[in-house]
Amino acid sequence: MKHIRGARIAGTGSYAPPRVITNAELERMVDTSDEWITTRTGIKERHVADDGVASSDLAAEASKIAMAEARITAEEIQLVIVATVTPDRLFPSTACTLQEKLGASNAAAMDLSAACSGFVYGLSVASGLIGIGALDRVLVVGVETLSKLVDWEDRNTCVLFGDGAGAAVVVPCETGRGVLSTSMGSDGSLGTLLELPAGGSLHPATQETLNTRMHFIKMKGNEVFKSAVRSMETVAKDAMKKAGVGADEVALLIPHQANLRIIEATAKRLGIGMDRVFVNVNKYGNTSAASVPLALDEARKEGRVKEGDLVCLVAFGAGFTWGSAVLRW
Ligand code: UT7
User: Which residue in 88, 210, 313, 329 has a CA-CA distance of 20 to 30 Å to 217?
Assistant: First the structure.
């Protein structure tokens, strides 16, 4: 269907749980060092949700801030999309739980599973539905509580991840503003390089899956690293081409915050200087689906995104999945 109008982000919000785990604390938990984590990843600390706090709780906090900025009440939201790989439960969806927590009584609700690319995927779905005139007000949230699924005895992964949420309210606008283009891709053949093996229909929970620690995140970091840089370069270039803009016109690149070295390598390949790249991985670690909207919200609140600026979002994650969106703010 042809787009009859544009879609723009009318408000953003983010939230991270108050508890912070520093690299120094991790040194006391596993065989690691602040020096290793800092030089290999750029991460200094990450936020971790307390017991009993679920993804929907973080999502609700971020959503309320985004809705307030957009001047939209919960009743006015027509669709809630929650991008997450750490849902409160396998079902019902975290989006339904969020719908109830917000009082979004007129909204449909669904989860979107695309790991770290989830928010960009969600923004693409929202802007498409708004563009064809099907909906007028969509809440897109990226949220994770990865601390609950990380193996705190595995130094290869536990130092990398953190918890957080970012939200955006998407509404119609004139064409040529807001989301100018999106691009997405996937490659399921690489799925086992970053996975949570058990707890689904393939390996339901058994005593053996528990004993073999199959309910924790497993990652072959080095191979993920190489694919991440390649895919983010390609997908961002595709989104820019679709939008008819060059990398030199991008005021701010907001990449998925997994690793400072991945961010620097991607920016270099795109020809975008680090002065035009937003980085907050040092404070949050890798928050998967929350990373891009959390960075977008912080960038805006720090005055890094001005009216009329061209902003490029780009992400890569388990699946593998990748996605990019170019926005005229
Ligand atoms: O969200 C999207 C998906 N995720 C990512 O994008 C993450 C992608 N990958 C990465 O960020 C990096 O690959 C890592 C940070 C995970 C690892 O960095 P690397 O430079 O690729 O290191 P490596 O995997 O080659 O490991 C180097 C060494 C290994 O020791 P040996 O085998 O060479 O003796 C690891 O055992 O570093 C060791 N190591 C650690 N040492 C201290 C791994 N984790 C740690 C640790 N502390 N926490």
Answer: 313
The arrangement of strands across the sheet holding 138-145 comes to 6-15, 163-173, 138-145, 79-83, 108-112
Domain 6-176: what homologous superfamily? Thiolase/Chalcone synthase (3.40.47.10)
To the nearest 10°, report the CA torsion of 221, 224, 230, 233: -90
CB 183 within 8 A of CB 312: no
Evaluate if pTM is beyond 0.90.
Answer: yes
**Domain residue spans in the chain?**
6-176, 180-328
Q: Is the CB of 164 under 6 A from ligand 1?
A: no
Check pLDDT > 80 for residue 2.
Answer: no
Pocket test for ligand 1, best of 35, 40, 120 (most atoms within 8 A of CB): 40
Q: List, in order, residues 6 or more apart from 204 with CB less than 8 Å away.
A: 198
Model pLDDT for residues 3-38, shown as the tens digit of each residue: 889 999 999 999 999 999 999 999 999 999 999 999
- In the block, tokens 């915050």 appear at 257
* Residue 41, ligand 1, Cβ within 6 A: yes
Q: 180-328, what's its fold?
A: Peroxisomal Thiolase; Chain A, domain 1 (3.40.47)
Predicted local confidence at residue 139, as pLDDT = 98
**Torsion angle defined by CA atoms of residues 171, 173, 175 and 178, in that order, rounded to the nearest 10 degrees:** -60
